[in-house]
Amino acid sequence: MTAPETTHAPAPAPAPAHSIADTVYLAAHIETFDEQRPTARAVAVRGERILAVGGPEVLDAHRGPATEVVDFGAATLLPGLTDAHSHPVGGVTGLARGADLTDLTLPAVIEALRATEPLGEQGWLLGWGLDPNVFADGPMNGRVFAEALEGRPVHLRLRDAHSAVASPAALALAGIRGGETFADSSSVELGPDGTPTGLLLEAGAMGLMDPVLPRFTFEDDVEAVLDRLRQMAACGLTGAHVMDLADGTLELLEAIEERTELPLRLRLSPWCMPGTGVADWDALCSLQGRHGRRWTVEGVKFFVDGTIDNGTAWLEHPDVYGENQEPAWRDPGSYARALRYFVRAGIPTATHAIGDAGVAHALAAIEGAGDARHLVPHRIEHIETVPDELVEEFVRLGVVASMQPVHGTHHTRADRTDNWSVRLGEERAARGWRCRDLRDRGVTLALGSDWPVTPSDPRAMMADAQLRRPVERPGCAPVQPEQALTARMAHEGYTTHAAAAAGHAGHAGRVKEGHLADLTVLAANPLTLTPEQQAVNPVLATVVQGRIQHGA
């Protein structure tokens, strides 16, 4: 009698080498922001791409002998958060120097400057983030600092980053006497006596101070920029759309990458300024695609106006002071021609447009560029006050809205007593930062901070977008609460919509197979928290290019 034949289940075939993960990240909850698989428990990563997303089977299917398994336990993993409008390099090297004056009153500003270490042989006092509302009793000027600060040269950047005030001593060192002319809408403001007040509006006028301001070494700048990027990563950011390419930026980024990795990805868009021509535009085209390991030059940025607070935005009708009625490009047709040049070259554009006339002109210019506008996304930045018909134009043209509702929560008041609201009047102020109206109409809405204009912690920014008030000020009345976003909408503004605004929707902004392995890990699921809880939800880690960048 022969023994019965026995059979054994075949040993599982080893996974193909190309499907073995470098790392598998586990978490109790993964919000993928992918409609086909809304939640998961595991993410397998190979190189800088996501290999697979799912449950425990992902670990079994993609684990090899060298695969690292990182278990975040009860935490929540999200697509990496991207600030869609920031200035982390130029903001450090050109704006955020000296004392941080954010939200300070005039007496507090003077005290902060007195406590600041004077710089250079002339003993300069520098500051940034100055609130124009500190000059409520009179026009913005630098003369108020002359006596209080013993005649020292003082240079303060206003929070809008489009203006500065300089003391009489500072003006004298720079040789600014009034009467200077500029290619754009810049101006040196004069008092009733015909002499400069110290208020310098827009880039051309502010640039007059550059030759005499204290100098910082290249090494100072490298350390300061790297520190700023590390602060951003510590708040959960894995990327930023950098809306400038300030002088020396590429050299700084290359120097950092010679020493270490950038803490987050940077997408840099250089400025196309008024007064430029085809040769300048060709030079901007030649920069496209320059890159390092975690930075790339992509797109160009325009300005069609300035800011409402300093009177340089472009409104259909002037403000209560007869200001805010001129474009940044003295010939608006030149802006349209420049924009058309880049649109037809297939280069993404972003246009700073704050006033209703500026937004209308930017939308019309994008439409006038022809069918090539559909090749890549084109976006408008800020969009602070617009009527219903312009909301519909965003819908009709498919233009991206890139907004910073934190400007409204930090810089305006519900009772309309702030400088921005007073200038506009009730009707136009009530049209401010129409985030919910744009989202409800299906417009792509990317969110950002515009640092150093406002703080950059995305958790607080998203909380403000839901509360329509500063999350850290519970007693503050909300500004236009009907424009509040939901928690999911706010987080989409930093993930899926930020990716779409850059033309990256096909490979970024979701936890999805084939997408970039950029992830943010939070202690709790922010979509289930109140906005106040979201703002202090601990960041456990960030993952960039598949590797843990911040945290453990």
List strands and helices in order, with pairings:
Elements: E1 23-31, E2 39-46, E3 49-54, H1 56-62, E4 68-71, E5 76-79, E6 81-86, H2 90-95, E7 99-100, H3 106-114, E8 125-130, H4 144-148, E9 154-158, E10 163-166, H5 168-174, E11 187-190, E12 196-201, H6 202-206, H7 218-234, E13 237-242, H8 249-259, E14 265-268, H9 278-287, E15 295-297, E16 300-303, H10 332-344, E17 349-353, H11 356-368, E18 378-382, H12 388-397, E19 400-403, H13 405-411, H14 419-424, H15 426-429, H16 435-440, E20 445-447, H17 458-467, H18 487-493, H19 496-501, E21 519-522, H20 531-535, E22 539-544, E23 547-551
Parallel strand pairs: 1-4, 1-5, 6-13, 7-8, 8-9, 13-14, 14-15, 16-17, 17-18, 18-19, 19-20
Antiparallel strand pairs: 1-2, 2-3, 5-21, 9-10, 10-12, 11-12, 21-22, 22-23
Helix pairs in contact: 7-8, 10-11, 11-12
Strand percentage: 15-25%
Average of the residue pLDDT scores: 93
What is the overall shape? globular
Distance between the termini: 64 Å
Low-confidence stretches: 1-12
Radius of gyration: 25 Å
Tally the beta strands: 23
Q: Which secondary-structure class do the elements indicate?
A: alpha/beta
| Helix proportion range | 25-40%
**Largest sheet, if any?**
8 strands, mixed
SS element count, helices: 20
